[in-house]
């Protein structure tokens, strides 16, 4: 390709000149191509890899030089001799003579450079190539990555790093390529290559270690291998990126959400000192936004725009606090350098004025921000104040327009029974017609008379007063200064009547509620009267939610709970409803209004406890692993004992899922919820560790898990809240414990403070790091469990071994993942649903089946493979939903690999029986199923309806009445059906194509010709007994013409309307006396002088045809590259002609060559190995040796 001219000082260093003229030189890199260049070539090749030279991708180049100059310019490079030769010839024909006209060498150089730049610009314009942020060096790396590992364009490279890969005890210096879906490594040292490809989705452990020998080592583990990399220039950056990419892969396994690049990132400045790939910038921005959202509890779609160091004037202590300001599309936030000193959140919807104040020595570059509640915030020491003010002004403008827009239209809602749909609903601000609770349920059921007054109420009053004083000093609402004093007040307990307000504030739910007015009411209205699996589960659990509390002993509380849970299930169908959500939601409803409780539930499920409440409670299992790790570090003397008893896994799920609400008395558990909304999950871990620590001696003496659970249960039952003004509520958990000695009372406030004193140093970012490690383990364990259950379910139904089934399942799943990575014809959500039974979780469509059919199924060979795969797929797809599950897949493969001759022939016979009609979704005439499968196999846009348009076939086929064989688990077509003449023709075509790559090809062709002749005769004889015919009809059906041998003149696949015919060699035709005049496969043309064309036939092969009833097929017949194109012309098909399976079987048994072919054993292990190597890079290779994933040399 042509490149922008670059100066080269030493033209001959490491390059060999192949052609030259006065102005241009064509060179080849030493060590490339034939011969290898000896030792010098090996050294050059090694240097190219180690130094990341572009010569690995482009080993040819063209240099420009004027005769009197010592400076050379690179103007083109090429990956092949052919490519570079084309450029060379163009220069000789178009430029060489023109250059001799110039007198000044500078003019020649300017002209050549301008000409090359013009060619590049024209090429970019014609091919619609847009300028991007990736440097030329990075584009070279992308080209290398695709060339070395065979990756398609859809696989995006994120970054690459120099490092060493340890093979045994020997390090291999090379390059680590990190793409969206794969980790790849390549090394070339003195003629020895090392190549590695690992899917992120296969990684079970990723850790950064440090030893004396390897201070910066990264260990990557999969189920079957371990890889160690070291000698990184920046190990922290590399490891963070690896973590991020592995997280994306885990997310894809969890909920099918693949990576989508953010195209809204601002372009880098031209003079930016460090130019990284656009994808790397995108991932860095995502990581920063994620940390920003977690720090300030912001909505999950908030994107960080930037941050800067500054100071904030805090009026409560009259100081300028040093910290960082963060600006995003909807918020301005601040946090002090000392984490607990002060933090601040200012939503832009609350901002009224942003202005630059006058600078002074005391207060340089100040910025004043005023809000609607008359608070003013003064920032100073801003480095680029003018730019910052402009960004804030831009975001303010967008915010005001958003608020105006939301007065008419609210966001999209997912409110469908069976599928996720996005609809816009118009919401005029009218009085809401949906009945919702407008006040917290606790206010309705607080049993307190006005004159009642006791010490507890006095203490509650003092708490309220303390909070009011705090609001007066630090501000109230979302813009409040959050300081260490705020935390102290939370730890002392939030007053009953302030809980709802402060939970909303600390959780960040107040922001989502403020920006989505009317959303909840509309969601309730849309979900009313709708029923699905989630609503059934909700109804079942409604009366189990705090049944001891009076608020949920009548219909008002139950109805509010039903509305909130149902609305959330419709908002987020991926979660729907999960047990334990009812308990948490009922507590939220006690202290918050119904709409507030809904948004608190949103914050809880989607931000604060991510993935806790899905069908597999992945988040809770992840945190259970984190808790085990924390217990091992901080209570080591107890850890081994607890692991032996298996208690940690039991207790942590119930404690974490319900935030201790199900294991503590209610009035104590709400204090835990208070602290959780302020501190996050860190508080739950602290508290759980404190409970273990407080019972350490009793637990060490426990003999079994039951005894340990009793010890912990009695301790938690005894946790009391002496400040509570609520009447005592009986605790169900305490009713189930034994009648032994009651445990001494434990004050909840003392327990919480103790957790801060002993374990308060555990940081949120450390927990996130541990969560990543556990997430890999948990999700891979779930995947392994799914695989084992699937294999266990079907191992008794098939002859495959357990190991073979596990390998086949891995390939089946890998095919699904590959289509997720690089696109497919169907929606990944349709093919992978974790909520379904194990066998149904992963399914594949036709395109994916074709990929596996090619590498695993023994009948896949030649040009008919796609057509045969289509027939096979339709037969396996028993419910006609255009998807097959693993059982259906194994059923089909099992027949081909382990079935006897009769079973295989039954399968082949059934594949050509395609009953029923398919209806086009555009409402036009039905499409013949047969025509759909044979002519339009490139689903889903294959058949052409009566409007002459390509349409999507309606995949709901009529019941196969009369076709279903109930005795056969597989392949639901009955053998009682006869094969028509058209179907028989297609069966014969399949047979001929099936043998195209067999060593005994000619012998099999000959045997097939004999069988075909016999069956044609049987069909003709059968007509005499099936339907009365006139003499003229009988005479016309007789085949009396002589056999004609017509040489094939053209074997190229030029015409899709080619004919498929009997193929045998010249010698066999002469020697075979059993060949009859019926040796015809399918039709030729109506005219005898038409040239016949067929694909992949040798020149010495003859076509045998005659003028019998099959001899006059129309233009629709043929054996083109897509497997026969369609049926023969209807005029040439004899409707009375038919054969049965018994006749087909008996005929095949007469030919030993065919019997041996179908009884030949299949080496499924070799096919699985080949399939694994092929699927690793998503490209088809003929054999294992075509792509060695392991190390060579």
Automatic annotation (TrEMBL):
Residues 1044-1053 have a biased composition (Basic and acidic residues). It comes from the Eukaryota. InterPro entries: EF-hand-dom_pair (IPR011992), EF_hand_dom (IPR002048), GRAM (IPR004182), PH-like_dom_sf (IPR011993), Rab-GAP-TBC_dom (IPR000195), Rab-GAP_TBC_sf (IPR035969), TCB1D9/TCB1D9B_PH-GRAM1 (IPR036014), TCB1D9/TCB1D9B_PH-GRAM2 (IPR036017). Residues 1109-1126 have a biased composition (Gly residues). PROSITE patterns: EF_HAND_2, TBC_RABGAP. Residues 1043-1082, 1105-1127 are annotated as: Disordered. GO terms for biological process: system process. GO terms for molecular function: calcium ion binding; GTPase activator activity. Residues 864-899 form the EF-hand domain. The keyword Repeat applies. Keywords: GTPase activation, Repeat. The keyword Transferase does not apply. Residues 493-680 form the Rab-GAP TBC domain. SUPFAM superfamilies: EF-hand, Ypt/Rab-GAP domain of gyp1p. May act as a GTPase-activating protein for Rab family protein(s). This is TBC1 domain family member 9.
């Amino acid at each position: 390709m042509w490149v922008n001219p670059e100066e080269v000082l030493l033209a001959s260093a490491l390059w060999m000149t192949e052609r030259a003229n006065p102005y241009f030189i064509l060179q080849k890199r030493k060590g490339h191509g034939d011969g290898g260049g000896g030792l010098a070539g090996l050294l050059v090749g090694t240097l190219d890899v180690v130094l990341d030279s572009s010569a690995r991708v482009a080993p040819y180049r063209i240099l420009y030089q004027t005769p009197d100059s010592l400076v050379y310019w690179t103007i083109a490079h090429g990956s092949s001799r052919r490519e570079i030769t084309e450029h060379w010839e163009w220069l000789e024909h178009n430029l060489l003579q023109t250059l001799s006209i110039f007198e000044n060498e500078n003019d020649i150089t300017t002209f050549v450079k301008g000409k090359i730049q013009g060619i590049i610009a024209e090429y970019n314009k014609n091919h619609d190539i847009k300028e991007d942020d990736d440097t030329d060096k990075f584009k070279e790396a992308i080209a290398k990555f695709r060339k070395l590992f065979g990756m398609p364009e859809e696989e995006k490279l994120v970054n690459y790093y120099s490092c060493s890969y340890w093979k045994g005890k020997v390090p291999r210096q090379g390059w680590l390529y990190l793409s969206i879906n794969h980790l790849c490594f390549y090394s070339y040292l003195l003629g020895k290559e090392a190549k590695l490809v690992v899917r992120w989705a296969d990684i079970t452990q990723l850790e950064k270690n440090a030893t004396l020998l390897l201070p910066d080592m990264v260990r990557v583990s999969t189920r079957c291998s371990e890889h160690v990399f070291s000698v990184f220039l920046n190990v922290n950056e590399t490891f963070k990126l690896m973590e991020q990419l592995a997280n994306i892969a885990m997310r894809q396994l969890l909920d099918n959400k693949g990576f989508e690049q953010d195209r809204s990132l601002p372009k880098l400045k031209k003079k930016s000192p460090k130019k990284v790939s656009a994808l790397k910038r995108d991932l860095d921005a995502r990581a920063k936004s994620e940390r920003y959202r977690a720090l300030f509890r912001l909505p999950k779609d908030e994107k960080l725009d930037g941050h800067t160091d500054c100071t904030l004037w805090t009026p409560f202590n009259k100081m300028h606090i040093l910290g960082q300001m963060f600006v995003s599309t909807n918020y301005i936030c601040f946090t002090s350098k000392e984490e607990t000193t002060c933090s601040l959140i200012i939503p832009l919807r609350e901002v009224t004025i942003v202005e630059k104040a006058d600078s002074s020595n005391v207060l340089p570059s100040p910025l004043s921000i005023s809000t609607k509640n008359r608070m003013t915030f003064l920032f100073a020491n801003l480095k680029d104040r003018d730019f910052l003010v402009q960004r804030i002004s831009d975001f303010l403008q967008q915010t005001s327009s958003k608020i105006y827009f939301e007065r008419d239209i609210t966001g999209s809602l997912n409110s469908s029974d069976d599928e996720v749909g996005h609809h816009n609903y118009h919401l005029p601000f009218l009085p809401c017609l949906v009945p919702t609770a407008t006040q917290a349920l606790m206010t309705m059921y607080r049993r307190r008379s006005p004159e009642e007054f006791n010490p507890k109420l006095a203490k509650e009053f003092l708490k309220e007063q303390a909070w009011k004083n705090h609001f007066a000093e630090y501000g109230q609402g979302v813009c409040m200064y959050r300081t260490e004093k705020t935390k102290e007040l939370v730890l002392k307990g939030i007053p009953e009547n302030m809980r709802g307000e402060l939970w909303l504030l600390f959780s960040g739910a107040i922001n989502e509620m403020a920006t989505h007015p009317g959303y909840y009411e509309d969601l309730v209205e849309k979900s009313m009267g709708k029923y699905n699996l989630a609503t059934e589960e909700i109804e079942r659990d409604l009366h189990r939610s705090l049944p001891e509390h009076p608020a949920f002993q009548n219909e008002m509380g139950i109805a509010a709970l039903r509305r909130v849970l149902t609305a959330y299930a419709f908002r987020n169908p991926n979660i729907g409803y999960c047990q334990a959500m009812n308990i948490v939601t009922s507590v939220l409803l006690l202290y918050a209004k119904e709409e507030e409780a809904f948004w608190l539930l949103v914050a809880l499920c989607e931000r604060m406890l991510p993935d806790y409440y899905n069908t597999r409670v992945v988040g809770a299992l992840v945190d259970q692993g984190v808790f085990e790790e924390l217990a091992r570090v901080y209570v080591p003397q107890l850890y081994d004992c607890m692991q032996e008893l298996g208690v940690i896994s039991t207790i942590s799920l119930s404690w974490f899922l319900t935030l201790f609400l199900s294991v503590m008395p209610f009035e104590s558990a709400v204090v835990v919820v208070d602290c959780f909304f302020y501190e996050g999950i860190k508080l739950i871990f602290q508290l759980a560790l404190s409970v273990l620590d407080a019972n350490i001696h009793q637990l060490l003496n426990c003999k079994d898990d039951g005894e340990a659970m009793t010890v912990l249960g009695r301790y938690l039952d005894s946790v009391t809240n002496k400040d509570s003004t609520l009447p005592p509520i009986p605790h169900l958990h305490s009713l189930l414990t034994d009648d032994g000695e009651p445990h001494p009372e434990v004050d909840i406030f003392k327990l919480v403070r103790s957790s801060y004193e002993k374990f308060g140093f555990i940081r949120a970012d450390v927990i996130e790091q541990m969560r990543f490690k556990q997430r890999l383990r948990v999700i891979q364990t779930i995947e392994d469990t799914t695989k084992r259950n699937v294999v266990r379910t079907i191992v008794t139904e098939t002859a495959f071994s357990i190991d073979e089934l596990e390998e086949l399942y891995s390939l089946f799943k890998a095919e699904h993942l590959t289509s997720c990575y690089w696109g497919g014809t169907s929606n990944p959500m349709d093919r992978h649903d974790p909520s379904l039974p194990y066998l149904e979780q992963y399914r594949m469509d036709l395109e994916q089946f074709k990929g596996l059919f090619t590498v695993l199924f023994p009948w896949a060979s030649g040009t008919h493979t796609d057509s045969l795969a289509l027939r096979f797929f339709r037969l396996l797809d028993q419910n006609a939903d255009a998807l097959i599950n693993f059982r259906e897949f194994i059923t089909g493969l099992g027949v081909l690999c382990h079935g006897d001759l009769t079973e295989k022939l039954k399968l082949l016979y059934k594949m050509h029986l395609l009953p029923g009609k398919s209806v086009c979704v555009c409402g036009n005439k039905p499409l013949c199923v047969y025509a759909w499968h044979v002519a339009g196999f490139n689903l889903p846009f294959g058949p052409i309806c009566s409007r002459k348009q390509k349409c999507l076939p309606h995949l709901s086929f009529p019941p196969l009445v009369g076709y279903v064989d109930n005795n056969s688990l597989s392949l639901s077509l009955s053998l009682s059906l006869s094969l028509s003449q058209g179907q028989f023709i297609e069966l014969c075509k399949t047979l001929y194509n099936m043998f195209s790559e067999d060593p005994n090809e000619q012998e099999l062709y000959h045997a097939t010709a004999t069988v075909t002749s016999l069956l044609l005769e049987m069909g003709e004889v059968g007509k005499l007994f099936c339907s009365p015919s006139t003499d003229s009809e009988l005479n016309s059906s007789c085949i009396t013409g002589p056999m004609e041998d017509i040489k094939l003149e053209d074997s190229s696949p030029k015409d899709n309307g080619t004919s498929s015919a009997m193929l045998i060699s010249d010698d066999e035709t002469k020697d075979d006396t059993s060949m009859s005049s019926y040796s015809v496969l399918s039709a030729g043309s109506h005219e005898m002088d038409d040239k016949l064309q067929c694909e992949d036939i040798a020149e010495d092969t003859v076509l045998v045809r005659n003028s019998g009833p099959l001899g006059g097929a129309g233009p629709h017949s043929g054996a083109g590259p897509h497997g026969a194109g369609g049926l023969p012309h209807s005029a040439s098909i004899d409707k009375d002609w038919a054969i049965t399976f018994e006749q087909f079987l008996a005929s095949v048994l007469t030919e030993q060559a065919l019997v041996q072919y179908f009884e030949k054993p299949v080496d499924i292990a070799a096919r699985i190995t080949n399939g694994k190597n092929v699927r690793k890079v998503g490209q088809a290779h003929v054999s294992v040796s075509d792509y060695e994933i392991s190390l060579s040399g």
